[in-house]
Hints:
Largest sheet: 6 strands, antiparallel
CATH architecture of the largest domain: 2-Layer Sandwich
CATH class of the largest domain: Alpha Beta
Radius of gyration: 44 Å
Shape: elongated
Strand order of the largest sheet: 10-9-8-13-12-11
Distance between the termini: 114 Å
Number of helices: 26
Structural class: alpha+beta
Helix content: 40-55%
Amino acid sequence: MKNILASIRKSIFNELMVLVTIIIIPLSLALSAYVFSSFNQVTHQLQLASLGSLATAKANTINQYIDNHLNHTETLSMIPSTKMAFKGFDLSFQQGIDSKEYQRIQSTYDPFFRRYLAHWNYYDLFLIDAKGNIIYSIKHEKDFATNLHTGAYRNSDLSKVFQQSLNMLQSNNSTFSFYEPSQEAAAFVATPIIDQGKAIGVLALQFDTDAFYDVINNLIGLGQTGEIVIGQDFPDKVLLTAPLRHDPDAAFQRSISHSASNARPIREGSQGKTGSGIIIDWRGEEAIAVWQYIPSLKWGMVVKIDTEEAFNQWGYIEKNLIGLIGISLLLGSFLLYLFTRHVTKPLRQLTQISHDVAAGKQSVKVDGLLHINNEVGVLANAFSKMLQQSQHSKLALEDTVNRLAESNKTLDQRVKEQIEHIQAIVEYSSDGILTMDQHGEIQSLNPAICHIFNYEAHELLGQKITKLIPEEYRGQHQDALQQYQRNGQKTLNNQSLEIEGLRKSGEVFPIDLSINEMHVDSNMLYLGTIRDITNYNIKREKIEHTQRLESLGVLAGGIAHDFNNLLTVILGNAALAKIKMQNNQDADDLLNNIETASERAAALCKQMLAYSGKGKLVIENINLTTLLKEMVNLLEVSIQKKISIHLDLSEHLLPISADTAQIQQVIMNLVINASEAIDDKSGIITIHTELIDVDLSYIQSIYSQDDLQAGQYINIEVSDTGCGMDKKTQAHIFEPFFTTKFTGRGLGMSAILGIVRGHQGAIKVYSEKGKGTTFKILLPCSSESHHVIKTSHTEVIEYQERGTILVVDDEEGIREMAGMALKEAGFHIIYANDGTEGVKAFKKHQKDICAVLLDMTMPNLNGEEVFRAIKLIQTNIPVILSSGYNEQDATKRFIGKGLAGFIQKPYSPHALQKKVIDILKTGVTNFSE
């Protein structure tokens, strides 16, 4: 034991450790502690200052956002057109929102308000009279035509901001809260409409919530973990009012209790206090945060970022810290060298012996060191054992070196293959790829760039990127580059922009441009990706055009349906009045005039339904060549005498499944239009038919806007030698109410489009100004047989006791007319003004009711829902459906469910009487059969 202790006391290691402990380690620890303390203090201060600036900027942005929208509202309220629109809606609203005058005012001013709504990015626009009535809105949601003083939304933020603006005669805004008509959070700005010094009403705009959230959730400067928390204070909690970065569904769904451990920042911020510090956020993560109050919305705001990310600047200072510690170690090592020099002589001897061993000398003597009573002696004894193992270690080392060399060779091959793969991607990419330096000079490019801009590679390398930009945009590019060089502000980095490019030929064309910053060695370069989107824009324009026509079709169908309801009342009451006023010739003449005008209106409705693709079709197999030969005399007398018709008809046509009357209408309208295009000059109208096989490639190239299937089609072409049309006119010819004539309704071509699409066909127009026009129609060949069922007229139905009918319709005039007609036939009538009352009435009187006349479109419960409820009560009750839409569309949801019959509006009293009596006589039938 004494020998061991003596050995430890004389140990070189112990002597060195004493020196390190006394000098080097304390010095290093002191320097490290000082650096860490300074760094943490400065980092905390800088990060808090940065977050404070971000929070202030975000609050200013939100306040500026609110102020801008207040200014928008004030600006729009002072425009004369706004005041004129308000007065027009105010007067027509008193006549009813379904009145013709209101519809006229709405069609006049709706585009005006929609343009501002889209330009300023709002969700909805309201006009509210001084009594609180919402007399106009764009969306027409549940709040439309309600009263904000007494209606369902009298306690809403819209009502509050309306009353504040009207009472205070100044613009006001609300905060965001859940708004039931929109089924989402909503906020409003409102301003009084002043006319001759008096407030006549209020203009209100509803924010686009998603656009507002985009303003809040702009997280530039908050890294990967930063987050902005917005909340509104309540008595016992704070309700989050905006999405979170880590919880996009948090808005108005998540709340934080006042007593929660992490509630302090958002609680104090929403209560008007400011503060900052290190917190534990709702995810349980440590974060550095600042909080403050946003008065304009009465919200609190917390701006925070995880401390782990916020303080990652330690890596930049760590090098300096290592340098300081290194200097300390070097100084200590120098002192240690001087101190230990006198005790390291045996070590130097041992080192020399080690060199001799490494040099391969065979006779190495360590006897002179074996007597030393410290680590040198221990090492000398170990050398003898080491020499024995050296040969084995040498062999093992050589083997390891060989395996490493093989691994390096494999790795080099993989790197080479990866580089070649990346080069191939760049070379064969259809998108143009180039790099440029900080001065905008092109450094490299791929073949696609040359193809897109029609240059050779050598013509672009070393040139300015502005060579590929039109002249009018080069100044903007140069300004952006100089701005970046001055303050580092980037305008294109990591963005995809649609701009214009310039080909070598001088052609300007649209491109999609994306620029990203990258570092190669010590150089700063920019990677640009360019795509020619000329064809994409063309396809997009075609799709938008199709969507516009489809939207107009839906509108036309809806208007026709509503008109049919009105015409039902007019025709029915006129017919009943004639029965009541028999032997009164003067009254009969007047009533006949009403019926004639109503039938003409019904014909107009049929045209509108035809345009929407919902017209009533009587389908049968038609040979178009035969049909055209039968029509030729009628066509010739319908056109100018100087114009001749030339028929080029195929005798080998397959039949089509179509409505004969509607196909005749299409051909007649096209021929008459062709005649008017030729005017009073001499000319030729050519009608051509043929059978063609159509494949998908032909459809995509010619009829890309229509959903056609490959197969056999009949091609009909109507060509003229008239004045032709320019591109602008061609773009609008299929829109309802568009016409180039001085008079006319403008429904001809739109009805043709609806008829053709209703027959699963397509139509194209080819025209050039001064060179004539050709309309080309494709209709699919028939694969089935169809028969037309014709009904004969019956005599007047005489009165006799027949039972009780339940009439369910939300139109009062239709209910009364139908009731009177059925009473004339001997029925007792029970009325219901909507679906809910209809079900209640049937439950109460089901033992007396023998049939139900049911409207399809009603509030509360629609026709399908009422039908289902009635059938659950009494399965075999006959239900007759009534609708302004055609039979196919109205009854498709009732197929196989026991619908007894259908009658389309407008209908006559006689037709209604016959329909009901026939169904009651024959018993209940399954309508699908």
